[in-house]
Amino acid sequence: xxxxxxxxxxxxxxxxxxxxxxxxxxxxxxxxxxxxxxxxxxxxxxxxxxxxxxxxxxxxxxxxxxxxxxxxxxxxxxxxxxxxxxxxxxxxxxxxxxxxxxxxxxxxxxxxxxxxxxxxxxxxxxxxxxxxxxxxxxxxxxxxxxxxxx
Length: 150
Ligand code: ADP
Known about the structure:
Helix content is about 35%, strand content about 20%. The chain is an alpha/beta fold. It has a single domain (about 5-145), classed as HUPs (Rossmann fold, 3-Layer(aba) Sandwich). The protein has a 5-stranded parallel beta sheet, with helices on both faces. Bound molecules: adenosine-5'-diphosphate. Adenosine-5'-diphosphate binds near residues 21, 89, 95 and 129.
């Protein structure tokens, strides 16, 4: 059976830290669906359609990666796509506290769903989408934090 994982997140923007998690995840899973959570109440900094195509352009293995947007429970989305795994990245204990609770809730909502955590590579541990947004907002160069050209 094909091992499919969902990698959910805001990806505002998708960074080298996220990319590293997906590339390492592809050694474990046959297919990874990068799912951009979309909330109509919350304005994004980077346009979602643009981000979708920029993420896709970061991969040459097009068959094993799909980029979608979603606006529903991640546990429901996983069922819909036949994904038995949720992929998440961990940078620090703050991530752990948050991810621990989400993982328990997702397990409750879909008991067949297993969350798999990959620890960030030291080179990317300091990268967060919110810091990158801030740097970009004030005119700083963010190209070295991203796996594509904007
Ligand atoms: P969310 O809003 O769900 O936290 P993000 O886009 O910020 O969405 O992150 C998606 C996932 O990627 C989360 O599991 C987060 O911990 C992980 N992540 C974010 N930045 C990094 C990084 N630099 N290294 C490893 N994992 C990361």
